[in-house]
Amino acid sequence: MTDATTKERPATLGRKIPAPAVTIESKPFWDAAKEGRFLLKKCAECNQAHWYPRALCPFCFSDKTEWVESPGEGVIYTYSVMRRSPTGPYAIGYVTLDEGPAVLTNFVDVGPDDLKIGMRVKVKFQDTDGGPPVPVFRPV
């Protein structure tokens, strides 16, 4: 595809996203995602938010973690554009959330050539192929 085609067709996930594995630890996250809410785990001992949600804090190994709702906003830390795709180019990368954790994600509602490191983004939930929606990010 040419750059002109990329600009005309923003990176909207036309490709199928596989359903995520839902575990006992992550089920509250996926249940909230179905409601359009983005949750993080936060440690009651060291006060650090972490991603991917898990029972033990990766910073201090405490089991005193709790679910907290996040606005799901942050900045693009890095990204990569995949140009060899049957559905057209798309971008994946890391978003550093305002709470601190970095999330590996897809970017939507923006052409891959329009992404910039440091760009403000917000979570959006994308349907999957037979499972709960997954968080993706779009420009604010």
TrEMBL record:
Pfam families: OB_ChsH2_C, zf-ChsH2. Residues 67-126 form the ChsH2 C-terminal OB-fold domain. InterPro entries: ChsH2_C (IPR002878), ChsH2_Znr (IPR022002), NA-bd_OB-fold (IPR012340), Thioester_dehydratase-like (IPR052513). SUPFAM superfamilies: Nucleic acid-binding proteins. Residues 30-66 form the ChsH2 rubredoxin-like zinc ribbon domain. Signal peptide: none annotated. This is Zn-ribbon domain-containing OB-fold protein. It comes from Phenylobacterium terrae. The lineage of its organism: Bacteria, Pseudomonadati, Pseudomonadota, Alphaproteobacteria, Caulobacterales.
